[in-house]
Design goal:
about 250 residues; alpha/beta; two-stranded parallel sheet; Spore Coat Polysaccharide Biosynthesis Protein SpsA, Chain A; 8 helices
Length: about 250
């Protein structure tokens, strides 16, 4: 499989070198695309130097900070245009274990049963290291809220460590994805379900970043709450319409 790993960056100058080293050491056959949002700290220039020194690395420069979701969508289009069979999401801050990627890839079709594999913190065997208690609480509650309202069996809907088959990404209307922040991950999960995808979770240990600042804000949390509530309402409305339509057909019959 041709595997393209997307690493979105914004002001990750300190974290990026160690992240790239670990990713490529554990997965020497992958290609990496750094998607930089015009980082003012020089992250994009550093990524260019990495690309010049290693043919497995390329850089996609975006004109400004436009959000995690938009960065991933641009990266996914770029990877599909390059002929990727698998597209992976991977954080630049070192929180995702690079050594877990081979196991995740082994679960993807055609070798495995899955179309989307999620590196999950909230399944048996998974967990977090060095996270503040309030962030753990936000993540757990947010996942319970999204899973319950959207009727998904996925335990870690906000997880940012993912491997998609190219076929699944082509089946998802990427132009329609407007969500940003960690809500993007919930959005892509529900769209994968709607596309009929088989979704699996592989346990990982997620670590708090050692360098740089977290991108989590109250606005990101609000976005997720608003969108999930709206999607759930739409789901209920569609169900009610379908039930009404069935009753009408029964009367006609």
């Amino acid at each position: 499989m041709r595997v393209v790993v997307l690493v979105p960056t914004y002001n990750e100058l300190e974290a990026l070198p160690a992240t790239m080293d670990s990713l490529l050491a554990a997965n020497p056959d992958v290609e990496v695309v750094v998607v930089d949002d015009a980082s003012p700290d020089g992250t994009g220039a550093l990524a260019d130097r990495m690309a010049a020194a290693d043919p497995r690395v390329t850089v996609l420069h975006r004109p400004a900070k436009q959000g995690l979701g938009a960065a991933y969508i641009d990266g996914m289009r770029h990877a599909l245009d390059r002929g990727a069979d698998v597209v992976v999401e991977f954080d630049a801050d070192g929180s995702h274990p690079a050594t877990a990627l081979p196991r995740m890839l082994s679960r993807l079709s055609p070798e495995g049963p899955a179309d989307l594999v999620i590196g999950s913190r909230w399944v048996r065997g998974g967990g977090i290291v060095d996270w503040p208690k309030h962030r753990e609480a936000i993540s757990r509650l947010g996942n319970v809220y999204a899973r319950t309202l959207l009727g998904s069996p996925v335990r870690d809907m906000t997880a940012g460590y993912r491997a998609y088959t190219a076929e699944l990404l082509r089946a998802i209307p990427l132009d329609a994805v407007r969500s940003q922040g960690y809500c993007f991950q919930i959005d892509m999960t529900r769209r994968a379900h709607e596309a009929g995808a088989v979704v699996e979770e592989v346990p990982i240990l997620f670590r708090e970043r050692e360098h740089g600042a977290s991108k989590m804000t109250s606005g990101i949390v609000r976005e997720a709450l608003v969108h999930v509530t709206g999607w759930a309402a739409g789901r209920l409305l569609r169900g009610a319409r379908e039930a009404l339509g069935m009753r009408r057909l029964e009367r006609v019959g």
